[in-house]
Sequence to fold (394 residues):
Amino acid sequence: MLNVKNIKMKKRKICVFTGSRSEYGLLYWLMQNIKKDRNLKLQIIASGMHLSSEFGSTYKEIEKDGFKIDKKVNMRLSSENITGVAKSTGTGLIKFAKAMADLRPDVLIVLGDRFEALSVASAALFMQIPIAHIHGGEVTVGSIDDSIRHSISKMSWWHFVATKEYRKRVIQLGENPKRVFQVGGMGVDAIKKTKLINKENLQNKLGFKFGEKFFLVTFHPVTNERNNAGKQIKEILYALSELKNTKFIFTAPNADLYGNIIKKHVYNFVTTNSKKCFFFKSMGRINYLSVLQFVDGVIGNSSSGLSEAPSFKIGTINIGDRQKGRIKASSIIDCSPKKKSINSAIKKLYSRKFQQKLKSTKNPYGIGNASKKIFSIIKNKRLPKNLKKEFFDL
Fold:
């Protein structure tokens, strides 16, 4: 008689790709769930900014958190010109194919819309590995990421979206509604599950004393606008220089086109104003979320200002078009990348009326638990026998 207890079930191999500090912060709890499940095998491919000393060699944070990185794929040739990004994407396609041929995952998890994600998703598509895509259906008019995000959606088998509107958009792309799941925002999930650091300990850890007025500043290049990065960051810094009794923590821009131009101007500003400014290549996920507790607001064009800051009931000065098209909470103040417009937005943020409105702010990206929902589906849904997809017509 067959002894069922002695039969070892084949573990489902779930490969998680991460190419940046912010993306890893969103994936952390999902990775923990997979790692702890005895019927699943977590595989990790780290690439992009994680492997660059210029951006803090953040793969070390992944390892420090207790994860084993199965493959480190160095694909980055240059992100400072369009040719370099195109070449890096091609290099990644070759190297990711090799990595996945070695790992043979049953599912590849990809979050977001960067060129590194496009590269690894393309390799998985050709190798007939089902892709689970997180945060599809969103729109960012000012960034090339918009096209990349929708492209990855078309390559993917499962879709995990943040809102009802984004689910509709993925279906509009022709994806089967039965495989498009509204789970909420991963950033909200990270906030709810992370034990944040108190003010005194955080100041000691960062080596920076917070001010009575205090902002977190992150500005990324608007990659669909050529040669505007320098002009825009100068306008922002001019506006910030006029604020009295105010301190700033700057975080580095992503490894995008024109990113070094922004970094150069920010670094010079911080050096000149060292008593009131601090610059981080990478703060780390816990430090970053902990700082959000104590700032008056977020300034720049990071998606975090839209998806995470509202949960702390703080204002966001959203500058320019990079995030144009994304769903926004009432705590978001849009402005142009001009000094006068930025100053007006900051004045509005401190107004009594706006501060009162912040108390009732609701985050449109949900109340958490996205990681658990994704985990349950990835674990329990039957793997496809083939990846034939019929276009779903509306």
In short: The first helix runs from residue 21 to 36. The chain has 15 helices and 13 strands. The two ends are 53 Å apart (CA to CA).
